[in-house]
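USER: Please consider what follows.
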Amino acid sequence: MNQKEKLYFEELNKQCREAWAIFKNPMYRGALEIAQNLYKDKAHFVYELLQNADDQGATMVRFILSRDSLIFVHNAPRHFTITNPETHETD
């Protein structure tokens, strides 16, 4: 990840944390429940990661789990990219 992508990632992370703070507000409980019930399987994200890697042509994946993080690695020729959060709608 280059420096520009790192800044974009940090901004996206900040925006996600702010959105989560809103969803934790009891006033938005219904919206949160709808989002949580979209996929009943709590590990559904694993299937999404595998599908995304497969879509990019990966033949090997690896999960690295630690106490406070999960790292997903694959060997697809096309790698994940991050775009500017401010221009996300038009990118």
Notes: Strands lie at 61-66, 69-74. DSSP finds three helices and two strands in the chain.
